[in-house]
Amino acid sequence: MLPIIKILVCACLAGALVMPGCVIQQPLFTIVQAPGDTPLPTTAPRPPDNGGTVTPAPTPSAAMESSRTPSTMDTINRNFISVAYGLGQTGLTKFDTPIVKVGVSGEYSAADRIFLTNFSALFNSISPTKIQYYWGFENEPVELIILPEQALKDIDPLGEFGENRNLTSRQVLFSCTFIDPGAYLQKRYYINKDAEMSRNYSLQRALLDALGFPGESDEPASFFNKDNDVSTALTEDDTTIIWMMYGLDIHENDTEARVKTFLH
């Protein structure tokens, strides 16, 4: 994952960058694969056991083969803090609502819809908080707006939005900004439809950023690693981090000090 610099574009957002023992239930779902898509892992993690390690989920998918060895909880806890607070946030930017409404609009394709549906099925199998899409709508707490590269430049000609760029070409993969329509704070992400191999990564990274995972992991195979801008595969540690964010008794705006009291 690449550094993202978030710039508040509305005076009313000053000081308000942050947004709004569990047993994981794994509902059955069908993964639909679009041609050329990076495969998504289909197993959710189990909660940490008392031995200080994460118990591997049975029959891990091929996308998770590189990370089958369980990490210690110290490693997972460190990466959780880095992913949640890595950009200098003073509080968690997660949602506390049971459902996160996500509007998807612009020039999205059938493949985009399949990919996002697959990802929400995986996320919803891990997290008590569920993703719900509204296709063709923009007025939701999270907005994914898929546009051609030139349109991104026209919207943000001065480069004032936070940007996530490709590691090699420096192409903008997505830009993010925060607006206040009156009722609630919106997280808006403009996705570059011309990002080619990084397009699925861009969709998933923007959505996870909105859900409270803006930072980085030092695990080499992690989706959140700073050197990744293509792969969408989540390691077992990544899925554990997602479960921790929405399965532990932690909330929007919680400080790092408070969150650490729940990490063992």
SSE blueprint:
Layout: H1 73-85, E1 99-106, H2 110-126, E2 130-135, E3 142-147, H3 149-155, E4 162-165, E5 172-179, E6 186-192, H4 199-210, H5 236-247, H6 256-260
Parallel strand pairs: 1-2, 1-3, 3-6
Antiparallel strand pairs: 4-5, 5-6
Helix pairs in contact: 1-5
How would you describe the overall organization of this protein?
It is a single chain. This protein is of the alpha/beta class and 264 residues long. It has a single domain (11-46, 54-260), classed as Collagenase (Catalytic Domain) (3-Layer(aba) Sandwich), CATH 3.40.390. 25% of the residues lie in helices and 15% in strands. A six-stranded mixed sheet has the order 2-1-3-6-5-4. A hairpin with a 6-residue loop joins strand 4 (162-165) and strand 5 (172-179). The chain starts with 72 loop residues before the first helix and ends with a helix.
Instruction: List the secondary-structure elements in sequence, H or E.
Output: HEHEEHEEEHHH
Q: How would the global form be characterised? A: globular
Strand content: 5-15%
Main pleated-sheet profile: 6 strands, mixed
Which regions have little confidence, pLDDT < 50, spanning 5+ residues?
1-39, 41-68
What is the strand arrangement across the widest sheet?
2-1-3-6-5-4
Helix percentage = 25-40%
CATH fourth-tier homologous superfamily: Collagenase (Catalytic Domain)
**Whole-number radius of gyration?**
17 Å
